[in-house]
Structure formats: structure tokens, C-alpha cells
Amino acid sequence: MSVGFRPMRDGQEDAVAAMVRQLPKDLGLPVAPKLTGEALRKAKGLVHVTVAEDSGLLLGACLWLFTFSTWRGCKGMYVVDLFVMEHARGKKVGERLLQSAGREAAAAGALGTVVLAALYGKLSWAVLVGSTLRTVRITAMILFIVTCGSVFAAVFVAAGGMQTVTDILQAKGVGPGPLIAMIIAVIFVAGFMLDPLVIILIVVPVTAPLVAAAGYDIVWYCVLFLVVLQTAYLTPPMAPSIFYLRGIAPPEITLHDMYRGVWPFIGIQLAVIVLLIVFPDLVLWLPAKMQSF
Known about the structure:
Number of helices: 12
Order of helices and strands: EHHEEEHHHHHHHHHH
Mean pLDDT: 84
């Protein structure tokens, strides 16, 4: 199978709309989308469609929109629907379709930024060079962190660290429940002080094999990990998220106001953590429905 990925062409709207109407049936949902090819044609420019095809035959489609984050001050993308034909499932067509849609969104966003800068008269050689250098620095920083995390995990495993941790846990008789509790505590404390990417790259490679060996689903663990990390970022006294928010908040909103106002949200986060632990299917139901994609 030689699969290609590209933006939807004129004349393919009806086939894509049919895929969207088929999606809830495959997921067992009692809904009936009313999308038509004509509606897609009218929405051109508002909704973007990336398709997968093999020898001219459509295998799948991803419908997505541009969004804008006021928090980050940049564009993003929101995936509305993702569908892969039944005979093409299990071949990572859906995964590659999402990747292709992401690249298309990034390219369109970058081009749009250049065009807007030119229209506003802000585009110059100095601006272009400066933006490129900042992009290279940020990319290099992220890749350096990822590389260091990967090296740390590789050295830890090669030096026998994983086996040592496993032996200690077995010698102490630590069961699956206490293991998860210990990991949550470590994540929570680390979230007070370290960047999320650093925590993910250091903690996940060490703890994921232990969690899998204890019989837990790795997807469930990763979602729980992120929710706990998010909770730690909200929790005083460190609360990095509060300090980020303080930098853009009006002067009349003090740090003390934020410390008092954050507790209801922390309570909601803790309730979510409890629900995820008690009802793992809250996490696993949708991946189970989509795993064949």
C-alpha cells in the first residue's frame, strides 16, 4: 500500500462527508451527522481537510480548524473528525493522517504570519532573520532536552537501574496500588520545581515499565501522569501556573487573590484523579474504540 497525504481536492467533498456520517456508526454512537458535500464546499477556508489516498482511492480524512490561544499568543489546530476506511485500519493511516494535518497547519500558519507581517508593513530582513534565529534556539533547546532525557533513560536501564528498582520494590513487597501512590507523590513534588518536559523525559522512562509490569494500562497511566502534573502546577506554595498568570494579570489582582482562588480548581483536579483511578474506562473507552485506526 502506497499511501499519499494531501489537502482535499475539489470534487472529493461528497466522499469526505460520507466518511464523517459513517464515523458515529463505527463508534456505536446514537447520533447522525448532517454534514453534506455541499456544506463542505461552502465551508472551504473555514474547515480544512487532509485526506489519505492510495492510487486515487480515498482511505481516510481528517477535518480540522485553526484556533488561537490567548494564553500562548499563537495559532493552534483543533481536530474535528478523523476517519479511516475499514480495510485501511490497523496500518497507521490515521496516525500518519494526523501528522500530515499537523504539518499542513504549521505550514499554513507560518505562511499566514509572513503574509500578515508584510501587509502591516512589519516584514523586514531583520525581522525575518530574528524570527528564524529564535525558532532555531527554541527548537534546539527542546531537542537538547529530549536528547538528554533519552540518554538518561538509556544509561539508567543499561546500568541496571531498572532492575535494581524492581528488586527493591519486590523485596519491600510493594503492590500495584502503593506503587501508583508512590509515583503520584513523586510527580506531584517534582511538579513544584521542574519543567513539565523535564519531568516527562526523566520520570516516564523509569516508571512506565514498572507500571506496565504491575498490570496497569500504559495509556491510562500516561493520562493520569499528566493530570497529576497539571495539579502540581496549580498547587501552592510553588504553583508555577500562578506565577505565569501573575505576569499577565491586571495589577488589582494580587498573588494572594490567586492563591485563594485556585483551591476550587485544585479540588476539581483531585476529583478527576480519583475518578481516573476508580474508573479507568474514562480514559480507555475512546482509545479502545479508535485503536484500529
